[in-house]
Design a protein that fits this description.
The protein is an alpha+beta fold. The chain contains one helix and three strands; from the N terminus they run E-E-E-H.
Length: about 90
C-alpha cells in the first residue's frame, strides 16, 4: 500500500504532507512514535475514503460502456392541463 501522507520534521515539530494535494499540516508533537501513529491513522482514514467497503466504487462516465452513458435524445416537456394524458408530438 502506498502511503498518502509523508512525515517530516521542521524546527522540532512533526508535520504530515498530503502527497495528493501537497497540503502540509502540523501533527502537534515532537515525539517520533506519536507522529508515526498519527500519520498511520491519517493514511488509514484516507484509504477507507478512497476504497469503499466491498470494492463497489462507482466508475467514472469515461470508463462506462458506450451504451450506458445515457441517451442523447431530447426529453419532451411535461404537459399540464386537460391534454396531459395525451402523448407528446414527436417529429
Amino acid at each position: 500500500m502506498k502511503h498518502r501522507f509523508w512525515l517530516f520534521k521542521r524546527q522540532g515539530i512533526f508535520y504530515a504532507e498530503d502527497t495528493f494535494t501537497g497540503k502540509q499540516e502540523t501533527l502537534g508533537t515532537r515525539d517520533r512514535k506519536e507522529a508515526e501513529r498519527l500519520r498511520a491513522t491519517k493514511n488509514d482514514a484516507a484509504a477507507q475514503r478512497d476504497d469503499p467497503p466491498g470494492g463497489c466504487a462507482v466508475a467514472p462516465a469515461s470508463r462506462m460502456p458506450e451504451g450506458s452513458r445515457g441517451s442523447s435524445e431530447a426529453i419532451p416537456p411535461v404537459r399540464h392541463g386537460k391534454d396531459s394524458h395525451l402523448s407528446p408530438d414527436i417529429s
